[in-house]
Amino acid sequence: MRRSAAIGALVAVLVAGGFALGPHVANLHNGLIAASFTAVGLFVVRRRTGNREGWLFVATGAGHAVMFAGRQYALHPGPLPGATWIGWLGVWPLPVMLVVIGLTVMCFPAGRLPSPGWRPVVVTLAAVAVVLAAVSALWPVEAARTGLSAPFELPGAGPAAAAYRVARPIAYLLFQLIPAACVVVRLRWARGDEARQLRWFVYAVAVSAAVMVLGLTVLRTPVPGTLTVPLVAVAAGAAILKYRLYDIDPVINRSLVWTAMAALVTVGYVTVVTGAGSLVRGHGTLLPLLATAIVAVVFEPLRRRVQRLADRLVYGHRASPYEALSRLSDHLAGPAGGLLAGICATAADGVGAREVVLYSGTAGELRTEAMWPASAVLPPGDDLDAIPIMHDGRVRGALAVRKALGESLTTAERKLIADLAAQAGLVLELRATAKRLIAAGDAARRRLERDLHDGAQQRLVTVAMELGAVVRSASAAGSAGVAARADAVRMQLLEATAELREMARGLHPAVLTQDGLEAALGFLADRSALPVRLRVTVDRRLAAEIEATAYFLVSEGLTNAAKHAGARHAAVRAELTAAGLAVEVADDGTGGAVVQPGAGLEGLADRLGALDARLTVTSGPSGTCLATVIPCG
To answer: Which residues constitute the domain of residue 372?
Structure first.
């Protein structure tokens, strides 16, 4: 902080003292660059400690402050004491400062070059600048051009001046073209915030250059353009700090449209008036009216074409509504959650939105189902457009869209979002129906399991106990044959009871309902014909349909491993992650498992699909692995 305060104070003294020494238009830009770049650089460094770009701004400003004060001191009428030597300090560092400015531009906005390949280029430019600065310092070849006198002149001034005159225009051109090329390359590959930061900077430079050109051509003075120099520094500082970063896209868009339209209207008007006037030898009042009518007729079609071109330049290619809808076919093969994410991505692509979120539920209980991008957050705001998702006359959710600041949905874009919302309503309804069917099936399984356990199974157990009493009575009465036959019937009845018990557990295990997934999977592992390595990391109860689906997946995997794969060992993993419940069943069998119509794996895949999950089957000579991740949000 002390160092930055000292630099700021020194630059302030140099700039204020320079301006106090008198106005010199040719030197005005140095003072403005010194003040604006130093102030912005110090502000950036204070807000973002260690920011390299901020220090490059400070270096640019401090160097120009020295040059500005030196030249102002030397140009003061009088002259002042030591004016020749102080003026000399304001002249010869110019090539070095041009490279410093170029490096500042090349490293924008993060203070780093785009790639290591640019380092040799910067080193070469710096070497050339040092040579030119040394020539300018030893043989003050720039003194005459700046209106300053040289403090000394070494032998060989003639050859040095001749070489400098040849090298200077080439070097100075490279000092400007190479940083510009670097910005173009960086802007082409930049994405997201970095692209918008570069656009802020480029836009400010373009505005400053346009004002400079207008001032030179119309007012015959560079002063208006010079006065816009601080605009570049302020815009760059705002971009580095990401202040109102997203405002730049609509600003550039509208600037391109209105500039192009102004040029086209002017050219069209002048062409009609002067061209037709030269044919009829005179303008009169008819030609201006005719030109105005033609411009009025073609203005709106031209504006729409120019607007589309500006949108493509600023926002990139945007799909037409029907192109956007056709891309949904790429997502139809996946689970419903993937389709909903595809709807969000399609909406963003179709209207150029910054964020899209798809909600389900009613207005009072909205739940996030999908979003684009993955980190989208849509707090309420005036720039938020929310289209209700309807199906069968009922609200199923909402599709919320946020475009760039200052933009809103056009009529065509709103129709596209409404069409996508209709598709989302169908998807939400199908998914809800599938979940209701699964829940109804699980409820039916639980009822059947209870009926078997509390009804038929208990009656069979009672009958077995009665047969046991008959066996004992027959034995006591000496009827060994009757006792033997009754005992055989009792054993068959006990076996049937055991099979019925297993069937009831297969329908829906009571332990899953009572004790949860970990206990139920442990029960499966204990009953498995194979040694099972079990790892369960689930610290809370999940929805009934999720627990039941995970249970049936593990049950199917262990059954297939024991009966069909000839496996010797199996491993089961169930872990609650940020993405959902990850379930995996692996064995070391012969492999060959595939999802076939009517088979158990197909039923599992369908059940998982209803829960926005996908069954992954990896089966080969080294064994089979069934895996999935079931969303738990």
So the answer is: 337-422
